[in-house]
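Entry 12.
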Amino acid sequence: MWINPEDVLLASALWITERANPYFILQKRKGHGDGGGGLAGLLVGTMDVVLDSSARVAPYRILYQTPDSLVYWIIAHGTSRKEITEHWEWLEHNLLQTLSIFENENDITTFVKGKVQGIIAEYNKNQEFKEDDDTDKFKEAIAKFRKLFGMPEEEKLVNYYSCSYWKGKVPRQGWLYLSINHVCFYSYLLGKEAKLVVRWADITQLDKSATLLLPEVIRVSTRARHHLFSVFLNINETFQLAEQLANIAMRQLLDNKGFEQDRSLPKLKRKSPQKVSALKRDLDARAKSERYRALFRLPKDEKLDGHTDCTLWTPFNKRHILGQMFVSTNYICFNGKEETVCSLIIPLREVTIVEKADSSNVLPSPLSISTKNRMTFLFANLKDRDFLVQRISDFLQQTTSKIYLEREPTGSLTSSDDEVTSQLGSLLSCSPPRSSLGSDGERQFNLNDSSVPTATQALMTMYRRRSPEEFNPKLAKEFLKEQAWKNHLTEYGQGVCMYRTEKTKDLVLQGIPENMRGELWLLFSGAINEMVTHPGYYEDLVEKSMGQYNLATEEIERDLHRSLPEHPAFQNEMGIAALRRVLTAYAFRNPNIGYCQAMNIVTSVLLLYAKEEEAFWLLVALCERMLPDYYNTRVVGALVDQGVFEELAREYVPQLYDCMQDLGVISTISLSWFLTLFLSVMPFESAVVVVDCFFYEGIKVIFQLALSVLHANIHQLLGCKDDGEAMTVLGRYLDSVTNKDSTLPPIPHLHSLLTDNGEPHPEVDIFKLVRSSYEKFGSIRADVIEQMRFKQRLRVIQTIEDTTKRNVVRTIVTETPFGIDELEELFVLFKTEHLTSCYWGGGTNLSERHDPSLPYLEQYRINVEQFRGLFVLLFPWANEAHSDPLAARFFRLLDHNGDALINFREFISGLSVLCYGDLTDKLKILYKMHVLPDVSTDEPDSAFEATQYFFEDITPETSMGKWQDYSFCTSDYRHYLKIWNQDSKSNPESTKNLPKLNQGQFIELCKTLYSMFSEDLAEQELYHATATVTSLLLEMGEVGKMFCCPGPRSQDHEDRDRDREGCPPPDRPTADCSARSQEPAEPGNRDGEEEEEQTDQSSPKEAGTLSSAAAMLTSDDETKDDTSVSSYSVLSAGSHELDDNKLQCEDIADDTVLVRSHGSLPHSTSIDKDWAITFEQFLASVLTEHALVQYFEKPVDMLARITNAKNMRKVGRTSLSFSDYEISLSA
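Predicted 3D structure (tokens):
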């Protein structure tokens, strides 16, 4: 390609001149091509790889030089000799004569540069060139990546790093390429080339470690082997990017969420590193936004815009605190440099004024932000204050417009709802009798009228009992707690904008007052932000979800009365109805989760302390942000944290870890503890204190508390002999955890089932237990937990994938002749094909092809495009040249439900017949493929007999396009398949139940047969046999027409009786050969032309074969209809006439209509609707040809095909050979 001229000082260094003229030189890089260049070439090639030279991609170039100058200019380079030769010839024909006119060399140089730049500009204009953010250096790396590993354009390179790959004890210096879906390595040293390609989805472990020889190593592990990479310039950056990409791959396996690049990033700055791609910047921005959202508990769609160092004036202690300000689309946040010193969240919806204050020596570059609740925040020491104020102003303007748009159309509705809400609140608070309250609540909550809103009070306020006098000291302590919190909120601010400090944490550890619990849970979890920004969302969900029934609602109904049944709030329909609405609304909000056991227990506690809508948003925060993936169908998040807990136990209680692993207790206890936040294993009044700490500190509190429980029982657990005894020890301990400050009446605890008669465990104060967990295990950091989660997520998801594979194989191994090993290998290929379609696109919605909530067999499905790739590699009838139409037909046959997708069972059912079925089964499959309406045929008539068979008048489109567009025309045959499947379930399929094949379908069958044999060793013999069979079938169909002509019912019965008695009809051709040869024309001929029948002498062998085949077919009348019997009897007498009437179709084309050579069929493209053959006729005709029988009964070496498929499936492209996870070396 042409490039902007660049000067070159040493033209001959490392390059060989191949052509030259007075002004231009064409050169080739040393070491490139067949010659290799000897030792010098090897050294140059090695240097190009190690130093990342662009000559590795473009080994040819053209230089410009004036005769008297020592400076050369490179004006073009090329990846191939053909490309560079075209440029060279253009220069010789268009520029050489023009340059000779100039007298001044400077003018020549200016002219050449201008000409080349003009060519580049014209090319960009014609190609609709779009400027992107990738630098020229990175574009070179993309070109190398695609060339070296054969990647398509859809595979996006993120970054590449220089490193060494260790194969055995020998390091290979090269380049590590990290793309969205693959990790690749390339090395070239002294003629030895090494390539490695591994999918991120196949990685089971990714870690950074140190050895004695190598200080820092990145280890990439798959199911097959380990790969070690070292000698990185920046190993931390490389490892963080690898972690992020592996996480994306695991997310794709988990819930099929593909990667979509963010196009809204700001343009690349000039100071940015040269090789940073736009995709790398996108991923960096994502990682920063994720940390930002986790730190401040912000909604999932919040994107960090930037951050800067600053100071914050804190009025409660009169200090300037050093930290960082974070600015995003809807929030301004601050976090101190020292943990827990101070953090702050300011939603822009609360901001009223942003202004620059006067600078001074004490307070340089100050910024003042005021909010609606009359709080003012003063930031200082801002480096770029003007730019920051402009960004905040822009976001503030967007936020104001959003609020206006949200309020404008629903203002009146919102106000009326508020009035009704306040009325209901007063009604609930003023109803004195509790029994009537329950009935009223039931009546109101079961109604789903727009005028009746959901509950506006926490259930605890309706069922609080404070009458006994013995609770007075506890009530006094509760009152002191409330006063302490009120004083704190007065000093540190109320609402979202409060200063969060170490004192706030101390108050949480002392317990949140009952009256303030719901409000503070909303605040600390961040659920308040989502609730405020989505007014009316919950009511709309309730309205849409009520009355809807699915699997989730059935499970919810089953668990409603198991949710905190000991609490009076859930012993009547009022609490049950509120719980039902919240769980059902969330199931409709997030169908990927729907409903999971343990959600009911957590939600019931939320409803006790929060209003119904607040409880819903708390549940959203819990399931989608604070406990990610906990409540999906496979509780992946809980399994991940179980692995994290095992790692923490090994580190913090090593003396107990081995014992617990031997007993298998950790995996048992962790799920119940984590999924319900200890609510199911601890007394209620104690467990809510754990929930208080969880909403403030996150998951680290649960880990700390679990470790404290193990540490407190370490001696008893070491003496346990089995898991039952260990569970009893832990159950008795947790059951004894009490909250002496609780003002609630004692609730019977039904969680712990004690099996021994020992003395009860001494009481354990919950506040002391929480304090102890912070003192002993408070050093656990959230970022360390996230690192551990990543490591465990790889292990858990790959274990789930292995389990899926084993369950699929176990399910269908009894249905197929394939062995277990073969099925496992085939499943891996099938899944790989699905993942490839996810990587590089496809015509079907990805969410329809992969749904982890479905049964194992249905989780992975492929469309016709992916099936074609597997068909070419695995199916014995496939050949490279003509496999597409046959693959399309086979796919339609396997697609039983007509949704344009097939699962693994359907795939294996078809492959089993072709590999291990008998001759009849294979021919039946081939026959049935062509009975269905064709997706690629251009003939105007459809399967006439098939429509009679299915009792449906269906006429397919006259032109359906190529088979690749099959997904848009599946309705033509869907009805066929559904009825066919229903019939086949009730009646075992026999040959006589198959519909007849009309003439158009028969022509397509002939095309298929000819295309199947195009690459076979016995190709000519098979062609001859096919011609004989098709001629025979054409004769059968023609003669059969004579017995299918419409006529009176009595005449038809008379004909059938005569056929059974062996007598010919009075006015139709007889079955005798001599009589038939003298008949003028058959009645079914629509053109009325006479048909000449020539009686040639055929070989005795041929006549005998046909006669015996006919005799065999007529021997069993119970398996054939009358038409087929009559047709065979006629042909058996006249079989010696076939030689001259053979079908001429050796050179058949896609648009050719097969005709006989002597006029049995008219020479036109019209289809004779009266012409038809049966499957018995097709089967018998094939049996007459030994070559065809031998072809269809040829054994298939499935293991060899699977091995070949694995070697050919390099990242989904059959044109490249590779071996998964292995290094390929070539001299």
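Annotation: The chain has 47 helices and 26 strands. The CA atoms of residues 647 and 788 lie 8 Å apart.
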